[in-house]
Write a structure and sequence with these properties.
about 525 residues, alpha+beta, Heat Shock Protein 90, Beta-lactamase Inhibitory Protein, Chain:B, domain 1, 3 domains, 4-stranded antiparallel β-sheet
Length: about 525
């Protein structure tokens, strides 16, 4: 808070200095001490309130400028007008208050110009040019800076959002890997445990096994079955709902090798290859072959677990994988949860196929219909997370600000060009040559004198520099003594009354060097 007050005090000092310096060096009409003090106090209020009420601070500076000059062009408060317009553009988010402030400034300036006896065209053009270059341009620059800050902040926000998305992707990858490990453990270890149970069952019914060992083998078989169930429970904890199944390579083992290993473990399984395409599908080289392998593996595991001793037939053709088992020859543990088949069905459907698992006769059949190689549905990649980053509106607003800046620049150039053209025309056509001024004489008929006068009179007569007031009841006209522009020049005053010239006088230049040339002044009382 203290730092803000210090900066506001520095701002006030910088903006109040021009008003005091300009008055001291005489670059404007002298003002009284109370006017200077009131202006400094108003600037102090504006400097202290610009953070909270930027539009009010600008309006204060504009009011001071209009009070000093109807055209708003003043060296005393021009810097304050531009600075507060810049701060208003960088601070205020809404555009309407600024436009209302600009409109109010134009209306007040126009009203003040209308009641003064000056050339309204030049004054109004100067008012508009000062407003465009001294207020609108700084305001647009402030808005451009503000939008630059907003774009920078939006960029950092978007970067943080993308970083969060990357973390989400990494988390999903970890979950995917966990699902892959869980699937591997469920399929591979479950299959191996089922084969152990099959071997134990075959050993239990062997005729040459001593009776004392049959109980141990039965316990081994029961332990293998229990281990399979407990493995399923553990995998259920590891695989959360919604985890994605991931492709799992079965270490290069073919379907034929899988069937032969199951047969060697005591499972009565028969392998049938329906066509040449079935031979090609044996080796799990791609996703389709891996799915064929998993279908056969899961079906053999379920047959060994739930239908021990039943004959199993594995048939692999180009588009169909069928695993059928007969009725159980030994009691099994009963139906399971079916999570293996659920995951398997999802993987088959991802390839565009279908999986049917249902009772068949006295046994059970698992049939997978897969699309031929090179056909079917390609897995659709997961859509990217919807971005909640910033809309392109800040960049669009910045472009609109640049367009408005260009439009304001073109308008300002037209106004300044028009003001300069009118200024040059009005000044050049209001010049009374010194030789013609010398030919005028007091008492001369007005009609004869008007032949020597130019077409236009000066639109801004310097009455305050006249050495004496004009004659009472006279119609006085003022003319420039030189056609020079943007510098102070002498003026001639010609006064008429009752159809005759009653006074001709010289009004000196502004400043201490201006002197009245007494030999060129005549009075008629």
């Amino acid at each position: 808070m203290e730092s803000r007050r210090g900066w506001d005090a520095l701002l006030w000092g910088v903006l109040a200095a021009p008003a005091l310096v300009v008055d001291r060096v005489g670059l404007n009409e002298p003002r009284s001490a109370w006017q200077q003090a009131a202006g400094a106090a108003a600037l102090a209020l504006a400097a202290g309130a610009w953070r909270r009420w930027p539009t009010a601070s600008f309006a204060t500076a504009a009011g001071l400028g209009l009070a000093a000059a109807p055209s708003l062009f003043t060296l005393s408060y021009g810097p304050a007008l531009a600075v507060f317009a810049l701060l208003m553009g960088s601070r205020a988010a809404r555009v309407r208050p600024a436009l209302l402030a600009f409109g109010a400034t134009v209306l007040l300036g126009t009203a003040k110009i209308a009641v003064r006896e000056v050339d309204p065209v030049v004054e109004w053009l100067v008012l508009m040019g000062t407003l465009v270059f001294g207020a609108v341009f700084p305001w647009l620059a402030g808005r451009y800076l503000r939008q630059g800050r907003e774009l920078t902040a939006a960029g950092w926000t978007r970067a943080a959002h993308l970083e969060r998305e990357q973390r989400i992707v990494a988390d999903r990858a970890r979950l995917r890997e966990r699902a892959r490990i869980a699937q591997d453990m469920h399929d591979s270890l479950g299959h191996e445990l089922s084969l152990i149970a099959v071997r134990a069952g075959a050993l239990q019914v062997a005729a040459d096994l001593p009776e004392r060992h049959r109980g141990a083998v039965a316990d081994l078989r029961g332990a293998a079955s229990d281990a399979t169930d407990r493995l399923h429970e553990i995998i259920g904890l590891l695989r959360e709902e919604g985890d994605e199944a991931a492709p799992l390579a079965p270490a290069g083992e073919s379907v034929r090798a899988l069937v032969e290993r199951a047969a060697a473990s005591g499972l009565p399984v028969r392998y049938v290859v329906g066509d040449a395409a079935g031979d090609r599908a044996e080796t799990p080289a791609g996703e389709r072959e891996r799915v064929v392998y998993r279908v056969v593996q899961e079906a053999l595991t379920n047959a060994a677990k739930h239908a021990p001793g039943a004959p199993v037939t594995v048939e692999v053709r180009e588009a169909v994988v069928v695993v059928t088992n007969g009725a159980a020859q030994q009691p099994g543990p009963g139906p399971g949860a079916g999570s293996g088949l659920v995951g398997l069905r999802a993987r088959v459907e991802d390839l565009g196929g279908t999986l049917d698992a249902a009772p068949h006769g006295d046994g059970f059949r698992v049939a997978a219909l897969l699309p031929p190689p090179g056909e079917g549905c390609t897995p659709t990649p997961a859509p990217a997370p919807a971005s909640s980053g910033p809309s392109p509106s800040p960049a669009h607003a910045r472009r609109r600000t640049l367009l408005a800046f260009g439009a304001a620049l073109a308008t300002g150039v037209l106004l300044v060009g028009g003001a300069f053209a009118w200024y040059a025309y009005s000044r050049s056509h209001a010049v009374l040559e010194p030789a013609d001024f010398a030919r005028l004489s007091v008492g001369q008929a007005q009609s004869d004198a008007e032949r020597l006068l130019p077409d236009r009179a000066a639109s801004d007569p310097p009455d305050e520099r006249a050495p004496t007031p004009p004659p009472q009841g006279a119609d006085c006209r003022y003319y420039r003594a030189s056609g020079e522009l943007f510098v102070t020049v002498e003026h001639f005053r010609i006064c008429f009354r009752d159809g005759a010239v009653v006074e001709k006088s010289v009004i000196p230049k502004a400043g201490p060097m201006g002197e009245v040339r007494e030999h060129e002044k005549e009075w008629v009382r």
